[in-house]
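Reading is simple: the token line describes the chain's fold. The lines below illustrate.

. . .
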Amino acid sequence: MKLKEALLLGLKIPQDHIIIETENIKGDDQENRESPAQYRLTCPGTSECVSLRECPQILAEATMRCYNSDRSLFCGVNQKFEPFICCPTYQSPTYVAESTNNLNNYDKLSGSCGRSLVQGSSYKKLGAYPFVARIGFKNVNTGHLAYPCTGSIISKRIVLTAGHCALAKADGHRLSSVRIGEFDSTKDPDCADSGFCAPSAINHAVSHVVVHPDYTNGQYHHDIALLILRTPINYTVAAQPICLQRDRTNLVVGKRALIIGWGKVSLSTIRSPEMQYMDIPLASWDQCLRVYSASGALDSQKSIEGQWMCAGGEGRDVCQGFGGAPLFITENGITNQIGIMSFGSENCGGLRVPSVYTSVAHFYNWIQENIPIE
């Protein structure tokens, strides 16, 4: 990737170049003063050639075009090698709800979601699934961070996960932060085989937690929570919000879905440092009842019909480390989260042994009602 393309994207490249990232721009008036343009081209139509920092609404589009080697938005560079782009004078379009008459039609999370900036249906590496986050627990004695759970980005300050992850009380550990933008935990920054690199992963401190009031620690009903971050996420090629499934109309038995996270899968004897994914089928609820009814995991006075989903059972599954991970489907280029990993069997990956997921569609209204007003 060329330097100018990397500047446009705000990516880090493994060479001795200085890349200006929008999140690191200082607030001091003197240092924030625009440097003289080294060169600047004329933009078409009503667009203006301005510094990328002055046009944040087009960052995602610029990122996608840069990755595809399209420099049509690039119009210059200043003496500090900060990119200039053609910024439209109108507000760029977003995907919004058609009606605001009631909660079902009004989505507080409305906006562009469920899209990867990396193109290619067969590509499964860095940037293919930028919707996933790692949930960090800090050792109160040593300060060491462990990541036993996973969540999904649903807005710049909200990560969706399981209630049992949000309220986990491991000995000597406490919920601390959410790690955003990671793919391989052994590399920083993450770089793809094609040569592009994502910005370094960032740990965002958790401000507070919103757990469903009917969730009971140690049980699995109403197993859902929102983690509210102290600082907003900077969307990049490795960090994007996922869309949420509103209903179950197209979620039929046998439909294929993906689960993503960092953990052990049944087909491997070791836990990979890379983000893992597995394609599994949606299964009938009767199949989960046959497996788990004797264990008592589904028994509770507060259990309600439809709050869970059943998936897997083909003789392979995800195991430890996937708690709270998103189960999702991608159709017409849009990714919708349909479930949250709740629990599975000790016989992980056994034939006809599916896992149980919290239904996103069932709790969609609860999510909307509990999103903090910015």
